[in-house]
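ok so i was messing around last nite and threw this chain in just to see what happens. nothing serious, just curious
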Amino acid sequence: MNAATQTPLPQRVPELHGQTVVVIGGSAGIGFETARRARAEGANVILTGRNPERIERAAKELGAQSSAAFDATDPAALELFFDGLPNVIDHVMVTAGQPHYGRLVDMNFTEARDALDNHLLLVLEVARDAASKMRPGGTLLFMGGTGGRRPGPGLGIVPTVTAALPALAASLALELAPVRVNVIAAGFVDTPLSASLLGADLENRRNQLRATLPIGRVVGPVDVATLAVHIMTNTALTGATFDIDGGQQLVAR
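result:
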């Protein structure tokens, strides 16, 4: 058979074609890259973030369907956002919030409550507000971590959230079915947030991970985004926690 008579290979249909993906915390890092990959797979994306200028810039770059600037840890603002969505949605990913480190005994009540609000209670609030807007088989996807599985001084409330989030997601997966609920548990990811937390120690941390991780490189936002889109498209996945840390758990700190 010559080239002129070969049957052309069928074009792959984008896996999220015509679907709508909401990313809460989508102005940078993991959220932004997940939105970018979802767009590449044919999705319409809706981005939210705290900073109006950053979220507007991200939405313009990606060609987002729409964007909104608000604090996701404000229950009233979160409810208002979901109530205002004009159509049903398929997937929601939440990357908002950041870890709070420090000795537990030095945390005051307000700090401890805020740390729980910014993670566990945010998950519950998103689930309450989003579930009625979602198509069957869509997914709620939350960011967790692997680092807090080894408790130690100075990690603050992080180990508590690390342990509780998979159980919370599994319970929600049963209550909200057929909407799916999953968690991505990441180790160190080279994002602007990591840079802000580590400051001058960032490059040392990168070099340490390159030298010790089994994959021989640092995990980046694109790695997590690839996993996130796979979870959205694979409708057999629910109530599960998916680790992505380059083998960080397998080596000493």
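not much to say yet. The longest strand covers residues 134-145.
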